[in-house]
Design brief:
Layout: E1 3-8, E2 29-30, E3 34-35, H1 37-46, E4 51-55, H2 61-67, E5 81-85, H3 103-109, H4 111-116, E6 121-126, H5 135-145, E7 149-156, E8 166-170, E9 176-181, E10 193-203, H6 204-217, H7 222-231, E11 236-240, H8 251-259, H9 264-271, E12 289-290, E13 295-297, E14 300-301, E15 306-307, E16 310-312, E17 315-316, E18 321-322, E19 327-329, E20 332-333, E21 338-339, E22 344-346, E23 348-350, E24 355-356, E25 361-363, E26 370-372
Parallel strand pairs: 1-4, 1-6, 4-5, 7-11, 12-15, 13-16, 14-17, 15-18, 16-19, 17-20, 18-21, 19-22, 20-23, 21-24, 22-25, 23-26
Antiparallel strand pairs: 2-3, 6-10, 7-10, 8-9
């Protein structure tokens, strides 16, 4: 069945304020050359979906620069393609500039876009999901089951202190009975639960009817008001995903998820799945240059770099310069960073275009990495 995708680009900025001060969560750099939205957008294109609406919030200029016309994802089309959906704000109705705060409010603001589509199904997804998923299989199961709405879930053991996680309760046939928010006082060693992945497939007309009903009743929560309340009346089902899946809820989780890319097994699940490539904006850069005294171990290094020192267990983005007699260990150095001579870095995250002068020694910890903001000079 024909499907249109609607993506939430900016629902989780407050989780990682260090990285989202000047960009939306969807455009956070990840894995040498990607942005977080690249995983979701690639999954959608690999499933054959050619019309995508991207719901924006704050700070979406960098996202627009990254997406462009959508040609790098084969979405520069006369019919379909990428549609940026900025927040709907009116002078008379929103004097305080209060933009939507929840997924349901964001969807309600996109009702006109969804209503104008002719597709039979709508796929909803967050943009900060790190996975390589066959969405066509989820769409197929949704169609064959006759469900009104299908929710993707994955088994996760959730530690205490974690918030903003929805647990999906279903019967043996996969029919959803209830959706609850995780209690952050629960035991960290609790058995794995079905965690909502924030990927949903729904019949378009059914979804529009639910949005109209939500607007009429003043509902604001997608999980509580639409999913949990609707499960009592409609045919809601789960789609179980067993592959690698992670999200980012803090700067330390960003560091951990990035370092996991150095694990060949995880890297294979994300980037080496046959017929499911992860696409991103193409940049033509010269190959990375390594001097005779350089040494690299267990690292990912993008093109356009100059490496004159030692790089170990690190992720180096495009255009980074690492000077002589410099050691970079367990670090993430983003695009166009300049690391001088005789520098020692350990567990450091530098944002774009950061300069670290000669002789500096900076160290964090894997649980609390040392972060340096964009354009800073140390």
């Amino acid at each position: 069945m024909s499907t249109v995708a609607v993506l939430f680009a900016g629902m989780n900025e407050r989780r990682v304020p260090e990285l989202t001060g000047e960009r939306t969560m969807a455009s956070v750099p990840f894995g040498c050359r990607y942005r977080l939205i690249d995983f979701t957008l690639s999954n959608i294109v690999n499933a054959g979906i050619t019309k995508v609406g991207v719901l924006t919030h704050y700070n979406y200029q960098s996202l627009m620069d990254h997406l462009g016309t959508g040609k790098d994802w084969d979405l520069a089309r006369r019919q379909g393609g990428i549609h940026i959906l900025p927040p709907y704000v009116t002078v008379s109705g929103n004097m305080n500039n209060n933009l939507y705060a929840t997924r349901l409010e964001a969807l309600i603001s996109a009702r006109d876009f969804i209503a104008d589509c002719k597709d039979e199904l709508v796929l909803l997804s967050d943009c900060d999901l790190i996975c390589n998923m066959d969405l066509s299989d989820m769409i197929r199961q949704h169609t064959e089951s006759g469900a009104d709405l299908t929710v993707a879930v994955t088994k996760k053991t959730i530690g205490s202190g974690i918030k903003d996680v929805s647990i999906v309760h279903s019967d043996a046939d996969g029919r959803i009975l209830n959706v609850t928010e995780f209690n952050d006082n629960a035991d960290a060693e609790a058995e794995p639960k079905d965690v909502q992945m924030n990927i949903v497939v729904a019949d378009r007309r059914f979804l529009l009817a639910q949005l109209t009903d939500a607007l009429a009743h003043g509902y604001t929560s997608f999980a509580k008001d639409l999913l949990s309340r609707g499960a009592r009346r409609y045919n809601y089902r789960v789609y179980r995903y067993n592959g690698y899946f992670e999200t980012i809820r803090s700067i330390s989780e960003y560091y951990t998820r990035s370092m996991e890319l150095l694990n060949p097994e995880i890297s294979h699940q994300l980037f080496q799945v046959k017929n499911f490539p992860v696409m991103t904006k193409v940049r033509n850069s010269v190959p990375t240059t390594y001097s005779g005294n350089s040494m690299v171990k267990n690292s990912l290094i993008a093109d356009g770099c100059v490496i004159e020192g030692i790089v170990e267990n690190s992720i180096i983005f495009r255009g980074v310069h690492i000077g002589k007699n410099t050691s970079v260990e367990n670090c993430i150095i983003m695009q166009d960073g300049y690391i001088g001579n005789n520098v020692y870095l350990n567990c450091v995250i530098t944002d774009k275009t950061v300069t670290i002068r000669d002789g500096r020694v900076l160290s964090g910890h894997e649980k609390r990495p040392f972060y340096i903001e964009k354009n800073a000079e140390v």
